[in-house]
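wait is this the right file?? whatever heres the structure
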């Protein structure tokens, strides 16, 4: 905080861009945000994992600037491999006892939101996976933050201790002034102003939050829109993996996880809504 204040005062700036491993310190980022003096930005892969992107940008800028026409690919974390519907159907052939329904985007968002509101835990798999350490809606597990039984089930699925908090995804604007598209800020949350978040606010009064804007194009944004109609401001968003395991990459990985974790109630893979025949 002292260093940030000193530098911002010296150069008369109010926007701070943080890089390196320090940028993954959500609490420190939150302190800067909560001071309300600065706009804070941390990239989606600020540590060594993102160095490859930085190296590429440096080379293009210095040696081939004419190639640097469209910066958009460098502004999204969703740069993993996308899988086709045919690959999903092929993966489904290896599993019995599953019900599948291919739905429109609107119907898929509404059905997912309805399940979340009924206390179900949903695996969300959309297109290419995220680069970086956070689950940002393409490889996520979702649940209702206001339901304590959901939190208990998530702790069993993820093998989380009681003191380990879960993160939230909300629409941009839900928390005044907060812009955290890469879940990089643990902000102070007023439980009285946001009672549905009470169960996931950490003992220090903070919560790590991803803010989702409409221009993100995420199915997660549409799910949040449907939840908002029922006065639910956000959703628990935790990474789609088990303890000490990598985040699921392919439809086959997601289906394997679903089969192994009976407390996950449904699985969304792109436009396909998947449940067990017994449910």
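ok assuming it is, sequence goes like this
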């Amino acid at each position: 905080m002292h260093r940030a204040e000193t530098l911002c005062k010296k150069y008369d700036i109010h926007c701070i861009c943080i890089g390196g491993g320090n940028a993954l310190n959500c609490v420190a980022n939150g302190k800067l945000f909560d001071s309300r003096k600065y706009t804070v930005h941390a990239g989606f892969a600020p540590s060594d994992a993102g160095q490859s992107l930085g190296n590429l940008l440096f080379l293009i800028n210095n040696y081939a600037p004419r190639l640097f026409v469209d910066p958009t690919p460098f502004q999204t974390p969703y740069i993993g491999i996308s899988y086709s519907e045919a690959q999903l159907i092929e993966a489904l052939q290896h599993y019995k006892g599953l019900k599948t329904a291919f739905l429109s985007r609107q119907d898929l968002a509404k059905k997912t939101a309805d399940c979340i509101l009924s206390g179900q835990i949903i695996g969300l798999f959309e297109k290419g996976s995220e680069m970086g350490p956070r689950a940002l809606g393409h490889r996520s597990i979702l649940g209702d933050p206001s339901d304590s039984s959901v939190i208990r089930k998530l702790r069993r699925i993820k093998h989380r201790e009681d003191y380990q908090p879960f993160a939230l995804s909300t629409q941009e604007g839900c928390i005044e002034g907060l812009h955290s598209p890469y879940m990089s800020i643990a902000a102070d949350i007023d439980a009285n102003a946001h009672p549905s978040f009470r169960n996931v606010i950490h003992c220090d009064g903070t919560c790590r939050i991803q803010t989702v804007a409409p221009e993100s194009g995420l199915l997660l944004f549409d799910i949040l829109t449907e939840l908002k109609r029922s006065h639910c401001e956000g959703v628990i968003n935790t990474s789609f993996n088990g303890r000490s395991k990598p985040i699921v990459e392919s439809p086959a990985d997601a289906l394997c996880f679903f089969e192994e974790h009976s407390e996950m109630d449904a699985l969304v893979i792109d436009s396909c809504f998947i449940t067990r025949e017994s449910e």
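Residues 51-63 form the longest helix (13 residues). so i think its the right one actually
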